[in-house]
């Protein structure tokens, strides 16, 4: 079995959400109870610290990107060789038809 996961940073909206911030604080408090003495930035070399970057202007926009208009008609490929094709996808340690 192969573990697969996706990890991403919290968005600006999630960082300012009170429910999310309280969940993060509770998580940090649980860690502090187990560790007792936290490490400080001074204990690490500068190369090992995570850099901080400014947000891009569009990171703060609400909603999804604008979808293409309905006026666009899909054009099928001439002589499409991929019609009725079967693909083999990884599942566990073997390939299966998809």
Mean pLDDT: 80
Total beta strand runs: 2
Give the strand order, joined by hyphens, for the main sheet: 1-2
Distance between the termini: 18 Å
Which structural class matches the secondary elements? alpha+beta
Structural Rg:
23 Å
Q: What would you call the quaternary organization?
A: single chain
Helix content: 10-25%
How big a fraction of the residues is strand? 5-15%
Shape: extended
Tally of DSSP helical segments: 2
H/E topology pattern: HHEE
Extract low-pLDDT stretches: none
Q: How would a crystallographer describe the biggest sheet?
A: 2 strands, antiparallel
Q: Please, could you describe this protein's structure?
A:
The protein is of the alpha+beta class and 98 residues long. The protein has a domain at 10-61. It is built from two helices and two strands. A two-stranded antiparallel ribbon has the order 1-2. The longest helix is centred in the N-terminal third of the chain and has 18 residues, at 18-35. It is extended, with a radius of gyration of 23 Å. The mean pLDDT is 80.
Q: What are the key terms here?
A:
two-stranded antiparallel ribbon; 22% helix; 2 helices; alpha+beta; 8% strand; 98 residues
What's this model, at a glance?
The protein is α+β, with helices and mostly antiparallel strands. The protein has a domain at 10-61.
Task: Outline the fold blueprint.
Blueprint: H1 12-15, H2 18-35, E1 88-91, E2 94-97
Antiparallel strand pairs: 1-2
């Amino acid at each position: 079995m192969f573990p697969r996961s996706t990890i991403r940073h919290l968005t600006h909206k999630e960082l300012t959400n009170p429910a999310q911030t309280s969940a993060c604080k509770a998580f940090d408090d649980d860690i502090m109870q187990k560790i007792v003495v936290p490490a400080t930035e001074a204990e690490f070399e500068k190369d090992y610290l995570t850099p901080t970057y400014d947000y891009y202007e569009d990171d703060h926009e609400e909603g999804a990107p604008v979808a293409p208009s309905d006026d666009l008609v899909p054009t099928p490929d001439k002589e499409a060789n991929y019609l009725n094709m079967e693909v083999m996808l990884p599942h566990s340690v073997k390939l299966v038809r998809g």
